[in-house]
Structure formats: C-alpha cells, structure tokens
Amino acid sequence: VERPVINRASLSEMVVPYGDTAPVQAKKNAFDSGEYNIGNMANSLTLGCDCLGEIQYFDGHSVDSHGNPWTIENAICMHEEDDSILWKHFDFREGTAETRRSRKLVISFIATVANYEYAFYWHLFLDGSIEFLVKATGILSTAGQQPGAKSPYGQSLNNDGLYAPIHQHMFNVRMDFEVDGPNNAVYEVDMEYPEHNPTHTAFKAVDRLLETEQAAIRKTDGAKHRFWKIANHEKKNIVDEPVAYRLIPTNGIQLAAGDESYVSKRAQFARNNLWVTAYDRTERFAAGEYPNQATGADDGLHIWTQKDRNIVDQDLVVWYTFGMHHVVRLEDWPVMPRQNIGFMLEPHGFFNQNPTLNLPTETRTTN
C-alpha cells in the first residue's frame, strides 16, 4: 500500500552572514542558493571518494545566462549504506538476543560555492524516518589584521595577521507535505510541567494546533523540548489518533544579525525557524523569487504570511530554517573538517507499531 508523506522537499534558500564589523567583512552575506544558483555549482562526483559502493548516478541539467542547456555529468549520487543497529533486545532469562540492522538510502550532491563545499544528503531509513543533512567543508574566508593583533570577531590563524571571521551558515528547506493525503495540519508540541506535582516528577507533552500562517511563525525552544507534528485529521491510527510525522528541529538557530541590518531585511526567513503556508505553486523560495540585490520589501515568506491564510486541514508547505554558528577554530585551517548540519522527520503515529519487525536477521559478518 502506497502512503504518501511529502510531495516535494528541497533546499529553498541559504545565506552566510559574517559577524565581523570590518567594512570588507560586514558586507559578506552571500545567498548561495538564490544569488549563486547553487545547483549550477554541483560537482561531477567520483566513485570511491564522493560516493562509495554500488552507485546509481544521475546527470544534472541546467541552462546558462543565455538559455543554452548544459549538463553536469554524475551530479547526483544514489546508493545504500549500512546504518548500524536498528533495534535490539537481549532476553537475560533465555540468554537470547534479537537484533536487526538498519540501512539507509542516500541521495546526495556536492556544490562548490567559491571557497566552501556543501554536500547535501537526503537519508531515507527503513523505519520511515527521513533526514536532511548538510556536510560543510572547504576553505575559510579569511582576512588580514596587524601582526600580533587579535580581532574580537574572529580566530587568528597565525602570528602574521591572518584570521577568519565568525559567521553563520543558514539554510531553509521547503517541504510540501502530504501525510497520508493532501489535507494536513500542524501542531506545536511542548513539554509542560503540571502545577499539581506532588512527586515532583511529572511532565507531559502538550499539543497546540497552529491555525493560521501568522500563528505558525515559530522559534525552537530547547527548554520545552519543542517539536512540530504534521497530522492528517482524516486518517486515524489504531488508537484513533490522527496519523502524523514530526519535525525534530535540530540545529534550530536564528539569524544573529539585527533586524535593521541589510542581510536581515533580505533574509527574514532566517529570523524564525518554522513557517507554514497554504500551498501556492508560485511561492518556492524563502527569500523570494529573485533575491539577487533584492531589498526584501516585496517578496518572501514574511510577505506571503501576511495573508494569514487558514492552515488547518489544507494542502500545506512547511519551511524549516536551521544552521550553524561557525565560531572558527585553528583546526578548521587550512581545510575545514566536515561539519554536519541538519534535521530529522520521523513517523509519529503514522504506523500502528514498529514497521520494521518483519526484517530478516542479518547473516553477513562483513560490511
């Protein structure tokens, strides 16, 4: 039985603002997707380094500034990987154990945007979970200062005046959900602690329905263990609850630049972590259709959500903003070890039980 979850999920926009106040540095706020057209910068992937194992490659196709088509060979890689233990239990009474291993389908591409490499991965797991992962690597954008000086806005890399400014990598992913059907709703789930708590141990998860676009402009809250749930009220599970998927908001940071800054006005999507909109096929990019030199005054999520449309039992698009505060360290130079940035989507009452119980026992002893 085919049960849809998402119609389309894609990187919508990304921006890299720098926190250094030096004139040459403060103006750095590249929109790597909308301005640089990150897909056109995809690498041709090679076996054994970029991808390992039994690989299916796909070419990427684009057009240049004159409308002429061109092809990037082997731009996308698809393969499977072992993913350690999926589930296990040891029965100490019987002295027996049952273990099943996980595998994940990996769909990836790698783009070089000037000095940085961004490797983008979708991971599809056997239990229905979906992960979006960005692996950031490459070479730092550096600057100069007087030898022996130490900028408060960056990390000195040597004693000759070379330093790398602090910055952020902010991403927004657009997800056109269809959880078991086209009409969905979004709940915010927070951990709450009841006033009547005689044992001082009570805590519970409380759902709150987000009814309109304005109500669904939200931030992460680690103190409340917040996550969001995309549910279908028309489909129920075995305990008569709406089937759902949940968005686990890891790496849920917000833009550090002040609201009056030029980059914040242009990248208002990065001021918040969650946005939910009623589906509109013309609303595709979080910072607007043409962010190159745009002011942010007339396009983007902050403009569309002013309509405050109903988002209960509708065809919905969920936009998640996440990222990395890059406080540079010496170990990031001269080439930066990979840093992982991403989030998870997990079934939450979508199935009536663990959907991987019928997996066969693994008999291989080598990977």
UniProtKB/TrEMBL annotation:
- Any matching Pfam family: Cu_amine_oxid
The cofactors it requires, by name, are: Cu cation
Reading the lineage from the top rank, the first entry is Bacteria
2',4',5'-topaquinone: modified positions = 116
* Domain Copper amine oxidase catalytic intervals: 2-357
Question: What's the record's note on cofactor binding?
Answer: Contains 1 topaquinone per subunit.
What post-translational changes are documented for it? Topaquinone (TPQ) is generated by copper-dependent autoxidation of a specific tyrosyl residue.
List, in alphabetical order, the Gene Ontology terms for molecular function in this entry.
copper ion binding; primary methylamine oxidase activity; quinone binding
Top enzyme class of this protein? oxidoreductase
For this protein, the Enzyme Commission number is 1.4.3.-
Q: Which UniProt keywords apply?
A: Copper, Metal-binding, Oxidoreductase, TPQ
Q: Reaction catalysed?
A: a primary methyl amine + O2 + H2O = an aldehyde + H2O2 + NH4(+)
Q: Where is the active site?
A: 32, 116
GO process annotations (BP) = amine metabolic process
Query: What quaternary structure, including any partners, is listed in this protein's UniProt entry?
Result: Homodimer.
By its UniProt entry, which PANTHER family does this protein fall under?
A: COPPER AMINE OXIDASE (PTHR10638), COPPER AMINE OXIDASE 1-RELATED (PTHR10638:SF86)
In which family does this protein belong, per the annotation?
Belongs to the copper/topaquinone oxidase family.
Identify this protein by name: Amine oxidase
